[in-house]
Fold:
Amino acid sequence: MTTKRQQTMAKITRERAVKEKRERKQEKKRAAAAAKKDRANGIVPAIDLESLDEDSASLLDSHEADGDDGAVPSERVVPGL
Structure:
């Protein structure tokens, strides 16, 4: 009769990591499918400002902190747009 070998902690950790990765991927797919369904129904998703980093959040801010809301010198401004 053969003896059963005990699993190593490394193997258990690897298997747990793979399982968690699969779960995250599946959740991401579910979220993408829900967003696609919402877009098809005409629902615009809200922006979660808390999940944005500081640089991204500043892009959404309509007011510049230094008070300069004008065009950048190298920026091309097209009248009427």
Observations:
- The chain has two helices and no strands.
